[in-house]
């Protein structure tokens, strides 16, 4: 049974084969191995081939045959539903395409025919014909032609690519899946023959049932086919895998490090190129490198090149016509950011006619950035015999190469489609495709690429420090890396790669050992060529290593090998051999190997020109190998100057296309930067936006630069501008005390004369003419060894050579304007000036200035000093005038005068909110700092600039109390520098700020024209910054992490302009700014909301801010946003009480200026309202009520000064406001809106003051008036209590509200239970202030003690007597509505004598002040050099000021900070001076004190404040009394008044004893009471007691009237005192006052202001 089944099976197969051959139809499954093989086709010159097909697949290979591996072939395939014939008969490959949508499931007939040169493709009757000339018209030969393969090729052939196939890429074509029949050949004889299949695989009979049609198991678009094993799935063309395409295929990716790449080259095997009419490339990449080859394919002149360049994607296409370039490089996005980006390149060709086609190229990155390009030409296809992925052996040799480097980074999902061919290149490489080759060791995963990363030197001051492999970019000419010394005594090697577009820069330098004989090694880039300098101690060798320039922006490899005295230096492919001179065979190096430049203070040999000229390397460097060991430059860049040396290489940055140079400056494009030449303008700076420092010379003035040591140079670059009307004058000259060498530039007869003397011979060169026309002229002098180039303005340069063999210039001093020191000119011939004066007089006009003893030769006379102006003096990398103006170092000696520049403002930006900020790239200030900007603002505080760093390093610039503070830390300790400007800078005017670092230890802060300096200590000399440079503020969450030495907790609000950051001028609102907050705008418009007349009520001062304003209520007794809210108020009852405010121990302020304001209500005629005493002197201030009038008596250590207002009675029970200001010995006082009273004491007491002082029995002082209130310690409110006394003298009864003294608010502190405030006795906190207090009846008051009830003419207006009224009594808004009422009284002019003269008391001499330690010396006491500072009695001694603004604690390594007081700060802040005794041992001040200025170690600066005396509006309308109120009840008997205690001799102490017989207990501030408005404040006395008191008071009034009648006829003039109001004094300010510490009183709300009440007559004060 089993044998029958086997036989039956073979029989069925034979029958099926016969059936197939008879019918001629079969089905190709389209599997990866399916094919059908037919006999060879030998058509001859006139043959044909035809067949029929049916399919639903869009693409697949129908048929292929070739000539056995030479160059002829025929390929017929289906591409997207169209039939394409690809053939070559020796005249080149051709394409014919016919049909559309042929994958429709119906039968179609295809015929290919040849007629000599003509080839036709016919599909269903549609024909395309093309001619191709060939040497022979035969297609191969019967012996060599291959079989005809249908549907695909056997797997055996696919493994022998290049050996058997003419078109190797045929193996990549998709196999045909469908039905095929009737393959017919027509030979040369014209007979048609149907062909039989010879062999096959994956072929089924036509009409066989298909399992795929019944059940398709393939998922995700996989193609099902029938096989001998059943149904299978083809997943090759989708992104899935598995038996049923159910699993997502792992993304293929690989890591390329610059040495690995994928490639094929069909030319090496003789294979024909791939030809396609459309292509599509898709790949994803991730890299940190801005340049590198991504993909290349092409053949000869046909190619597509995809590469990265400068962080963008560049695609170059050439199909035999003009190259087409498409670049995708967004303005604000770079693709070298180490993030994944996807690139899609699509090319299509559409044939217009038989000779012209139209090609479209589309490039897209991430689907967001798309660019397109088109080209037309006589092409129809793109030929491709080569393919490269990620690079090549020599990438620069690839056609269309725009980069010379391979790709470094990761690639994944790289798919290339050419017509029907689809290639997954990384997958092919991983699976070992015989067609694709792998160069290098490729990792098929994405790894971080560290080695080989380039770094860039961004400045000419950049340099590196240490060994590894990597690529660095020097972004600045001062960027330098410092590596260990090159150990190569006998032999050694160095190799690296560099890339730049800048022509000059020092690449490497290593100095020799101390014991060596001048050994050194250097490589420099000069005028685009590489030069090697090598000295083994027996002579220097200079080798030019290049024959063509290398500043072309491409990578160049430099290799140096040395063995003893012989060596070879190779640049790219060019080699130069050299031999060092002398007998030395050993190179003794020591110290650091500098890359990119040299550090500050490093001397270089004179033959190293770039080092002498300060020209650092700006460009990229990578792959440094020293003695065979790779050095990772990136690791050194991270450890050192990470701001100027970065870990990538691209030339992006500033470009001249944006016209960045202003004011006529010319722009030169550098590597990633632009360079502005400002030499022909009156400006300097990176964009020619800063006015140049201009010096004026008058014939006796000079500018001298003295170097510490002799300088020896072979190269100089000098340029400057000058103007003069004199025909002769010395411009610049060098001198040396050890040599006769010199360079001298002078005017002679209006011409420029250059004298160069090297050795014993000199050379004279002339240039220009008529230069004494008083116009600006520019001079350029360039010397390179013996070659000299001199140019005036833009004329043709004059070139010459010096005489002799000497090329080194030796000098120490540089003289500009005239030679100042004669002692250095010992070599000058002994010729007298008189003998030469005649020769010089003809060229020096009629000037009588002395001749300058300039060094001259024997045939030249002395040169007259220069008279005129110079600016922009530049020499060997330094702008000397700018450095001198900024206070750089002590090597400048200047007697010429700097002119006032215009301070041009450019590129301003506005920070409209304190939360606004801009994040700029890291500040490049590693080894040097030069920051310049301008600002204007109305805010006193705010962070302007901050850049954090590594460890403790940071730099900050902030505005504190209206002054600029520079705070920095180099890693040792923080240092603070404050500007020494006398006035605050928040005045809404432009101010210029320059922060510079002349040396590693010296730092300067210049604001406008005032410079502050500081010398930092410690061992660290570099500022290691990292992260963003924040301008105008910080993100809100960063303020809490600021260094504690930075005081700002808000940003800057105002304008910043003219930004210059170490030679770079970024635009804070430019498109390349990394981060910018919304309220930052270009331009400077100023405040948007401005102060107006009614902004603040009750006389508050409107303080203008940037976008708003606030109200300063300190001098109003009110509070709130608009000074319209009641302040804290306390009631002092009849039981006597006192409130004491104590300044912290040891924190007693010394003030030159005091501000006091308060509101009060009382009915007392005599009381002490408050008293302020000193802790260590007799200084005091006392505010008291005398006879119902307010007086302030103050003493600063000399005599008592009374000042008061006798025109207003204040004991009328209504609200009054008193304002007192003291500035030195002068003072002003104002009651309500009455005229301001002033006091201006003189050295000699005036007669009027003398009379008053005698009546006060005060001490008379003759001499200088002192001005400082020393050691303010205790403020008593509500009375005064003497030391060792239990009684309160002259207690105050009434209400006090809104007390402000020098910014302190004691009443608020008492309500908050502050421990510094002690409340005792009958003192209670009020919830609100009543409108009036009960007072005596008006009928019981003496006429002269009353306040006039209504406005109108006042008694005494026409008399010399002054009526002491207290206002109009009208409570209407318009005084015209008030009806005048005159009370003539008795007509008596007698003044009520109620003032009792005080008794003279003994003045206690204060203890002597402690000696002031001399910080500069360190021991002993500072000698007295000022009269006031030496005086031991009174307050005038001990005024201590600050120096340049340096607030540094030398002993503790910390800076002395300005502490803000813990309580409310005033907007109008007095000047407070703290002596050294007030400092804690740590150097810091306790919190709670006001802003201070401290003395420092270099000098003294003073700050003065000027205010305008203007009457202030009335603070509160007085209520018009309608009924008489009962007298104020008296609980305790009146304490006898002892006016002898007014003087400064009596000291007071804290009240600790009982009051009377009953002890006074502390009052709880929480016991708040509301005043009684029915006639009593807080007493419940019965009406009977009040009646008795009224009767007694009436009797006393009658007695007083009798006394007045008796005194009427006695001399009234004895007590008169007239104030001279012509004196200048400092009055109550009404102009906006700068805020202190940024504290205001609230938001803006329009308020009400009362009109100012003025008096036109002279005011007389009467004291009786």
Detailed description of the structure:
This protein is mainly β and about 1650 residues long. About 5% of the residues lie in helices and about 35% in strands. The protein contains twelve helices and 107 strands. The strands form 21 sheets. Strands 89, 91, 92, 93, 94, 95, 96, 97, 98, 99, 100, 101 and 105 form a 13-stranded mixed sheet that branches. A hairpin with a 5-residue loop joins strand 78 and strand 79 (about 1000-1005). The chain is elongated and about 165 Å long. The termini are far apart. Residues about 1-25, about 465-470, about 825-860, about 1335-1580 and about 1610-1664 have low confidence and may be disordered.
Question: In brief, what are we looking at here?
Answer:
It is built from twelve helices and 107 strands.
List keywords for this structure.
1664 residues; mainly beta; 9-stranded mixed β-sheet; 12 helices; 107 strands; 6% helix; elongated; disordered N terminus; disordered C terminus
